[in-house]
Each structure stands twice: as C-alpha cells, then as structure tokens.
Amino acid sequence: MPWWKVILWLVGLAALFSLGIIVGHFAVPKEADQLAPQDLDQELLEAVMGQLDASRIQENLRELSLKPHMATTLRDENLVQLLLQRWQNPESGLDAAGEGVYEVLLSFPSREQPNTVRVVSSNGTTLFTSQHSETNLTGEQGDPEVVQPYAAYAPAGTPQGLLVYANRGSESDYAYLKDQGINLTGTIALTRYGGVGRGAKAVNGAKHGVAGLLVYTDPGDINDNLRFPNETFPHSWALPPSGVERGSYYEHFGDPKTPYFPATPSAFRLENADIQGFPPIPTQPISFEDAQKLLCEVNVTVHNRLELRNSSNVLGIIRGAVEPDRYVLYGNHRDSWVHGAVDPSSGTAVLLEISRVLGTLVKAGKWRPRRSIVFASWGAEEFGLIGSTEFTEEFFSKLQERGVAYINVDIAVFANATLRAQGTPPAQSVIFTAAKQVPAPGKSGLTVYDNWLQYYNRSSPAHGVIPSLGTLGSGSDYAAFVHFLGITSMDIAYTYDRSKTSARIYPTYHTAFDTFQYVESFLDPGFTSHRAVAQTVVNVLLRLSDSLLLPLNIGDYSETLRSFLQAAQDKLGPLLGQQSIDLGPLVSAVERFERAAAALDQRIETLRKNLSDPLKVRMVNDQLMLLERAFLNTRAFPEKYYYSHVLWAPRTSNVVTFPGLANAYDEAVKTPNDPSAWAKVKKQLSIAAMAVEGAAATLEPVDDL
Amino acid sequence: MPWWKVILWLVGLAALFSLGIIVGHFAVPKEADQLAPQDLDQELLEAVMGQLDASRIQENLRELSLKPHMATTLRDENLVQLLLQRWQNPESGLDAAGEGVYEVLLSFPSREQPNTVRVVSSNGTTLFTSQHSETNLTGEQGDPEVVQPYAAYAPAGTPQGLLVYANRGSESDYAYLKDQGINLTGTIALTRYGGVGRGAKAVNGAKHGVAGLLVYTDPGDINDNLRFPNETFPHSWALPPSGVERGSYYEHFGDPKTPYFPATPSAFRLENADIQGFPPIPTQPISFEDAQKLLCEVNVTVHNRLELRNSSNVLGIIRGAVEPDRYVLYGNHRDSWVHGAVDPSSGTAVLLEISRVLGTLVKAGKWRPRRSIVFASWGAEEFGLIGSTEFTEEFFSKLQERGVAYINVDIAVFANATLRAQGTPPAQSVIFTAAKQVPAPGKSGLTVYDNWLQYYNRSSPAHGVIPSLGTLGSGSDYAAFVHFLGITSMDIAYTYDRSKTSARIYPTYHTAFDTFQYVESFLDPGFTSHRAVAQTVVNVLLRLSDSLLLPLNIGDYSETLRSFLQAAQDKLGPLLGQQSIDLGPLVSAVERFERAAAALDQRIETLRKNLSDPLKVRMVNDQLMLLERAFLNTRAFPEKYYYSHVLWAPRTSNVVTFPGLANAYDEAVKTPNDPSAWAKVKKQLSIAAMAVEGAAATLEPVDDL
C-alpha cells in the first residue's frame, strides 16, 4: 500500500471513530434518561473540538477574502448568499437562517473624482500629488473593486493651507502647538494614526481652527520601523510604503441617521445636518510614502458623499431543546474595507467552521443544545458597528429579557503567539475553563491557557496569577451588547508576542494588503491559531448553551468592584475628602455586593448537589444572566449614545475605576472652585453606588424583602 | 336560648365550617400530590373571600383614622409600628416585614405663623382675614395635630394685588382673561379646584405675571351645590363651608431632591434652587366660605418651608412556594393630610384585613402561594407618591426582572354604588374574573361584575358589552410601577352613582372632615363596600400569585392598540397625509402584534392541556409578565421624569391614541409650517411603531429568528 493510501485509511478510520463517539454518546436520550436534566456533555465537547478543521477554516478564508467586500457592495451581497447557503444546508446547516436588512447611511469616496492631497507652490503650481491607490504588489491591489483610501464620513471640501505636524491629533498635541505660538487657523494638520480615535483627531483640530486633516500610518507605530519595499509585504508582514489605513471617522456607533431606532425603511431619520459625531473638517488618510513628501502649503480635496444603502445581517439559530428562550449569541461582522482577510474574514472563517460542525450534529439528530444558539454575520461594522447596533435596537426587549451572553470573534488571528480575550467579569471563568481544554498551536505542548498565562498575566486576589482578561471598549460588534443591552460579552482572538513587535496592530490593517496570502504566509501558516481560536470559542459556546447551571462566575465582579473602589480611594479619595465627598456609600455598596455574591455562590454549591428541580435551577440562572443588566442606567451618561453600563462606559481618566466618577473628578479638578463641577462628581458617585446596590439586591435571596 | 345565643352559635358553626373547608382542602400536599404543579385552588379562594370581615375592616379604619397622620408625623410613625406589629404577628402575620426609610424633602406650613389671606383697603386697613383652620364640627377638627390648610411646596412670600377670578387656572382660562384686556401682572388669581392639576394653576398663572394664587373648592364642583351648614357634614356627606382641600403642588412625583435616585441619606441631592416642578408663586387653598368674601385688593401670606424628613415604607412578604422570584405586589399609602379616613385609611383597613386572612393561613401551615406576595404601606404619597417612587428606584433591577403585577388600593371606597377599576389591559381579564365571583353589596343579588356593568360599560369588539376599565394616570402609587418600571398595574375601589352626584370627588377630600364618622355615616354604613373591595382584591391577588399560568390576557392589548391606531387614522390621518407622514408602519406594527398575541393565545391553549413541564409554563409566563416592559422606552419622553411607557404617558391631546404621537401632533398643528415640529411627530410615530414591534417580537415563538 503506498504511503498516501495508508494516510487515507488512517484518516478514514479516525473519522469513523469520531463518528462512533458522537453516535454513542450523543444519541437522543431515551425515555429513561429524560428525568436527568440536560447538562453539558464533556465527551461531546471534546468530539466537537476535534471536528474543527484548520484546512476548512483556511478554505473558508480563501473564499471569503477572494474579492473586496466592503459593506453593501455586490461582493458583500454575494457573501450574504454564501452564509445563507451554508446555514440553510440540509446536512450541515442550522435550524433556520435569514437575512435582516437595514437602510443605513454610509459614506463613500467618488470613483470619478478621487480624493487628492497636493503640495502647491506659492504661485499655485502643483508640486506633488498623492497616490489614489496602493501599489499593486500581489495583484489584489489592482482589483477594480478596491476602494480608494478615505476617511468615511469626513465631509467633502478642498481646504488649502500651511502644513502643520500635529503628532497624534490629541487635545494635548494641538494645545502644545498653540503653546509654541503656532496659529493653527486655516492650517492642514498632518497626524499619525494611534493614540486617540480617528474622529477625535478631526474634532480636536477643528476646535483650534484646523481646516483640513491628514492621517498617515507611521512605520514606527506599525512596522517596527521597517519602511522599504524590500523589507515589507510581500517580503514580510510589514506594511508597504504605499499602504493606507481606511476607517470610519464617525464618533458614535450605529447608523448615524437613526440613533436608538432600528434603521427600517420607515424609521425616523435625522436630517443629515442634525447628525452628531461626524468629523467637522475634510480629512484624508495617506501612506507614509506620501506623508514624507508633504511640505509647506498643502491642498486637500475630498469628494466623499453620504449614501443610504441597504446593509444585511445574516442570522441563524440552533433552537434550544430545554430553554429555547435563552439565547447564547455568537457573531462577527462580514464587511471588510478591502479583501479583509484578517479583518474580518479570519473571524468569519472560524464562524463558518463552528456552525458547520454544530449544524452537522443537529441535522443528524445527534445533539441539540439546552439553550438556543444564535449565529450572526453583521453588516457594515467598519462604518461604525452598524449592523449589530441596529439589531440590538430592533430586538431590544427580547434580547434584554433572554440574552445569556454574546461572544464576538472579529479578527480571529492578529498573530500566532497567544490567546487574547476581553470580556466582562462573568465571562472570565468560562473562557479560562475553555482555554484549559485546548492545546496551544505550535510545539510547546502547553494548553492555550498556560501559553496565554506566559504572555499576559496578572495577580488576582481570588485566583492568584491568571491570564489578564481585557476590558471591552467599543472596538467591535460587542459594543451594543455590553453597553446598550447589558449582556455579558466577550471577544476572543489570537495575537502578538509583544516582545517581538510593538506594532500598534497588524501592519496591513484596513489596507489593500490585508489578503489571504498575507494570512497564509505571515500570520498563521497552517491555520493552527485559527483552529485554536475555534476550539476555544466552541468550548465557551457549548458551556454557555449546554451547562445546566450557567458558567458565569459572578464572584469575579466582586474583584473588579473592589479594585475600582480601591483605586477611587487611593487616587481620588484625598481630594474628594477635601471637598467633603464621602466614598462611604460606595464602600457599603461594594461590601454588600461581595457578601451577596459570596452567599449566592454558597447557595449554588448547595444546589449543585441536587439539580433535579428545574425551576430552582432556572431561578439561579436568571440571577446570573441578569446581573450584567443591573449595572445599566440609561440616565447615567445621557450625552453618550448607547452607553448605559455604569462600569464600562468610556473612561477618559487614567484612574481605573468607575468611569463616570473618574471622568467627573478629572473635570472638577480643572475647576476646583466650581461647586457645580463637584456636584457632578457627587452625582456620579451616587450613580455608581446605586448601580452596585441594585446589582447586589438581584443576587440576594429572591424572597428577601 | 335567647336570640343572641342562637346567633353566636350560628356564627361559631359557620366559622368551624369555614375552618374545616380550609383544613380539608388546603392541607400541605402529600408526597403523591407533589407531581401535580401547584395551581389556583378555587375552594381556597372562596374560603379566603369568606373570611374577610367587614367589622374588622371597620375596626381597622377606626384605629387608623383616630388621629391626623400626615407623612412623617409622630402618628404616622405610630402607624408604621401598628403595621409592623400586624405583619410580624406570630398567628396572623406575614413571613417577614420591615421598614424602609428614605430622607425626603417635604413642605410644611408654619405653626407659629399661619398662612393668611387678607382683604386690604386702599389705605392698608385689613378688611377681612381668612380662617386658619376648619370649623370644629365633630371634635376631630380641633385636634392640635390638624395641619393648617396649605399648598405643599408653594414658596413662601407675601404678594399683594388686585383679585382676579381665573376659573380653573388652565392655560386657556388665563388666556381668556388676557384677551378681555385684563393685565394679570401682579394680580392675585382666585381659582377653583378641578380641571387641571394643582401645580398647573400656579405654573400657568405665573406665565402671565400672576403674583399669588388662591384655590378654593366650589360647591358646584364638589357638593352638588349644597353650601349651608345645615345641609353639609355632619348632616350629609357634603363639604362644610369652612372645608379646605390640602394638597401637593409639585408637578412631578417622587422625592423632589433625588429624581431617579432612592433618597438614601448619602444619595446625590439637587440644590433646592435646582429642583424642577415646584409652583413658582405663593399659593394658598381656601374654603368657599372665605372665597366668597374676597374682593378687590388681596394680600396672601405664605410661610411654608421645606424640610428634609425621614419617611417610612412598611413592607411585608409571603414567600412563594414554587416561584419565590416572582412578585405580586399589593400596596397602599399610609399617610393622610388630616385624619384621612377615606384617603388613604379605607385602603389600609382593607390591606390589613387581607394580610390578616392570608397571614393566618400561612402561619397555620395551610397554604403558601406559588409566587411571592409583597405587601406595602407607602409613606409620603400625599406629597407626590414619594415612598413608592423611592422604592422603585432602590429596587429597580430586581422589580423589573421579577415583578408580575402591582395592585393598588388607595381610597377603597369613594362611595358605595359600584366597583371602579383602572389598569393596563393585561389586568382587565383577571379583574373581571374576580368581580364575577364577588357578591355586590346591598340587596341587588348581583355580582360586583354585573353591578359594575350597569354603571360603567363599553362595547368591546372582542368581548361585547363589558365594564369600562379606566386607564392609569399618576394619581396614586401605581404611577412609578407602570410608567417607570413597566409592571402591569391596577387600582381598585368602590365609587359613585354618577346619576346621583356630580361631585368631582367625595366632598371632604383632603380636609379635616374626612373622618371615621364620615365613612361610617355616609360612605359605607356596615362596611359592605369595603368588604366587596377586599374580596375582589384578594381574588385578583390569589389568581396572580397562585395560578400556574399567569392570568394576564395579552389579547386585550391588541384591542387597545387597534383602537389607538384607529383614532390616529381617523383624527390625525388626514393632516398627517398632507404632511406626507405615513401611518403605515404603525399599521404593520399593530397587525404584527395582533397576530403574535393571537398565536400565543393559541399556544397557551395547547399548553393548557399538558402543564406538567414547569419550564414550558415558566417560559410562557415570562412572556406574559414581561410584555408590559416591552412598551418602555426611556428615551421617548426625556423631559418627563419617570414616564417611559410609550402607551400611557400623559396625553394632553384629546385624541385617545399613542400619547407621544398625539401630543407632538397637537404641537405641530399650532405651527404647521415648521418642519421641525413635524419631525417631532415623525419621531414619535417611530417610537410608537418601534415599541409595538418590539412588544410583538417578545410574544412570537421564543425560538423564532
């Protein structure tokens, strides 16, 4: 038998063996089994993880990233059909899948009149003109569907003025220039990506009179200083000199015309002039190759225009067998800026492989989760998390009542060194448990958890040295779930070895060089990191969908709250004391929370010994599921669209504590003699204490007065 | 045997018989019974209703109304202790009872410097001085604890000016005077109670420059024109000439210093100057006896002052046996203006009798409800529903997650003619079912339901001719439950025969003549109407707490929505059409709701045939319980404290439809050429449609995509 036949035989035997395990262990329970409540099946879990196939993920990615698929383009619509076909497949699809369409306001450059940056002489001669596209190095950059680099939602206009280098365009960067005696009025500010958000660079500049904004990617920030064609992609993972980061410059998220309304055709829409959060001045991103050629007087011509477009979410469901009204949601966006092999197709490739394996089990009648699993492919994320936000608006009540958790995998693999997870505290333990069951890619022999621990760790009072779970900002589609809905959320990926690169993000981010070849050659040859992410995610997913008792560890919120309190006491306490502002109510609230969480954990341990009463289990699960909701206060930050979560709203202060309190404190310190500024601090203190007290009350025995 | 011994024997036998029924039917279920899920027990219900004793209600009322018990006074505190003793009684108390104290801002007149209204001559001589107290006709009016009539929260001051009669002090009343060429600046406006809210009379007047406000009770509005001492109380139920209606003139509800915060000692408090909604001008209520003596130049001296006071709620619980995390709440306020025999002690007398009967069963181990029952005695309602509102703020998350329904019985008996119930539509059917099981007081032989049907009825497309269920405004402690929390709520009382009186409300309302004698002599001799209310309420209460499937008929919301839609189409449609504002989205939303509600009703009928799966029942009950929540939108009416319910927020328009839509329409009609006014109409239309769509989504099958 030739060697390849041996391999075929072995593969076949392995597949049969796996199938046998599945048939043997996950057959529909017989009458006699019905009495035992459905719970997580460890062997099923192992088998499912084993079924996740790196080469299938690789083939998914190849197809997904074949062509540019910016939101609402023809190729985006093709991928909608691809997802629907996969999820409606009779052998490996889900129970149901469908499309949700919203009419949303996007922003595009003009094909006919490309945006241009020119250096002009004093007599009006053009001395230099910026490139309209990236250099065609691998063929993909020459695709006619590649969108010209632009700053989405920046207004059209042709400002011209003296060039001023404004570092990262932060408030303090502009203030520094002003302090140097530089009059910024009418200037064109040249800034580099990073430090502050895209839109903030324009907003800050406009406050100082800046007339036009340029943003480039600095090789020092992204390339570990590599800058020449022969040392950048396709010769390494580094960004070629002509690469330009596209991106949305909208300051909020969701469809800009319909804040708090789902963007159905009939929804109330703001007039474009009434929209808040668009960059106020013409803005254009450029390459570092072009940036270094700019000098003196610069003209920026932007022809962006706003367009109402139909954007689709694709949704699929595996219906829960026992608690179909409890939803574990797992999603990623579908739209890219160009080919988007990394962002977002690496995540979508994983999503499709997970849905295939689970769908196959369901279609074969071998398994059905205890709770419903909802799969989502969001549209128009790149323009501002639009698809996911509109979805949360449309199904707000339903999701708020029934959402157990939201798992986001946007970029699945930034790099192949270690897991990186972000989430709210109740998600920590289930991610840890999952990561301990997955082998790390490579030859270390470590689990994903142990490998992670080597790269990012911290010392936890309760758990000792553990991997660091990051917090969730608003960088991807989890934003509306955590901030607007108060659903326990997480984001999972593989990422960098920070000892080897200081790149702000993977170098070809949002450029025409983010291609399949880039992933295959530099980020994850063999797709083993993709598989490790898939295995970790499916493990988390099944634990959430199938465990009789929800694996959300509320005790981990005690640790967060205690650390927030400690930071407030240490960093804010002295000056608050001088203002007779007492942190005592927050101390009492945190202590009450700690007591309530510990007591509930005790009751859960007791319950674990006898799980036969389905209502008792459901009541405890409701407490666990709804804890995150209790931290919402829709009136806490009225000026910030969608931000209601008192613990995770944007924090501008660098004190890691309750964001409303820290931000108000920072403002008050600037005007220490203004009683109204300190009143705002007191108000935010009350908001924080009330949220923690209210959350504690939900954990206390349900029949306590 | 003398006749009285026969009666004693008969009473004893009846009591034994009742006890037998209870023991026989409601014994703790044996092992074999455990498999059948706990459901409503009709015979228990009948027995409980039979135990409710009119003479006990009478004795409760005698004690409760013995002394003035204005919020936070010593007597109010005594009643807190009375409630605690009753609810902690080892034989007839609840499982637990406790006190919740809030530090709230109240307003009181000065004992040392009574508020005074004077008629002054042009040379400054005082020609007439108003009375500082009501005439002591029955002894109670002479109690030193009777508070001087005053307008709570009206500012202190001594305006003096020409007297102007301004009817009811509505916006149009003042506008009429202005149109007649009368300069209102610096005047004292004399208005009569009714028509618009108390505070509105001052707010409207101040806009026109009115310097001081007087409010009197007109015999035509309250007394069917009776006005002389020999034809008013104690000779009839009519208000004596010296009677003055006290009341709160605060425009919002809840503690004025802590909107959206529970008024704990450490809560953030507004500076008094920053409080919104206080009457802007000195205001004083007066008697009709005094009102007729006023002429020409009038001086109003108000010495009211604001005080922070501790106000208590008393809470008690009977813990649920099966679903302790589902709360049926039943409450009433405790504080009165003076003796408050009718308002609120008639309701509290009923509350105590119901809690006694149910507590006795629980303490004897004879019964325990399926769900938890929470009893509440609210503090400081008269100042603006303060105790109940603070409670909903403190336990917002817990109540929003778990509140099944709130039953309010404030004034239990306005008069003894007929039941009067208000509520949101899901409450209608359970009130009807209960009312059909209670005999109406008097000799008619009718049920409470049939008697009600004779007095107040309407034709329902779904049900034919049925009693009219009123809607809930913000007149009592249900306000925060329905508007802020979105909990299905209702208010139940016995009330007038409108063919016999046109009194705006019972004549001694908020005066020192609202006494036990008044109730016993004129409102409900024999206390049979009190008992009928108690029986109806306990029936509703047990149906909500004990029925396996919640008796909330969501189909009745379909009827409401259809009627709102029809009114919008008929009354607003033509002009909206001219503005190209399409009601189509609202039509679709209502149709979707109707379909979803009907389909859920079908599924419930199927489920009813096999109720053995506790999770299936719980899932449906969650849909029913949470429907009301789905109509909340915290951003719908941002300027109106606490009002989030899209269907029941205050409606100033007289078109009975979605209030936000109707109000915005009325505004736009005033400025038909202002596009921003029509944009607000469009926005409210979207808010309404979104709420109905979102609510429909919660009724659709839980595993629908």
UniProtKB/TrEMBL annotation, chains A, B:
GO CC terms: apical plasma membrane
Subunit description: Homodimer.
Cofactor list: Zn(2+)
Localization terms from the record: Apical cell membrane
Keywords for this protein: Aminopeptidase, Calcium, Cell membrane, Disulfide bond, Glycoprotein, Hydrolase, Membrane, Metal-binding, Metalloprotease, Protease, Signal-anchor, Transmembrane, Transmembrane helix, Zinc
Keyword match Zinc: yes
Organism for this UniProt entry: Vombatus ursinus
InterPro entries: PA_dom_sf, PA_domain, Peptidase_M28, Peptidase_M28B, TFR-like_dimer_dom, TFR-like_dimer_dom_sf
Domain Transferrin receptor-like dimerisation: residue ranges: 581-700
Function: Aminopeptidase with broad substrate specificity. Has lower activity with substrates that have Asp or Glu in the P2' position, or Pro in the P3' position. Lacks activity with substrates that have both Pro in the P3' position and Asp or Glu in the P2' position. Lacks carboxypeptidase activity. Lacks dipeptidyl-peptidase IV type activity.
Name of this chain's protein: Aminopeptidase NAALADL1
Coiled coil: none
Molecular function in Gene Ontology: aminopeptidase activity; carboxypeptidase activity; metal ion binding; metallopeptidase activity
Domain Peptidase M28, chain residue ranges per copy: 313-520
GO biological process: proteolysis
Domain PA: 161-247
Topology in the lipid bilayer: Single-pass type II membrane protein
Similarity comment: family membership: Belongs to the peptidase M28 family. M28B subfamily.
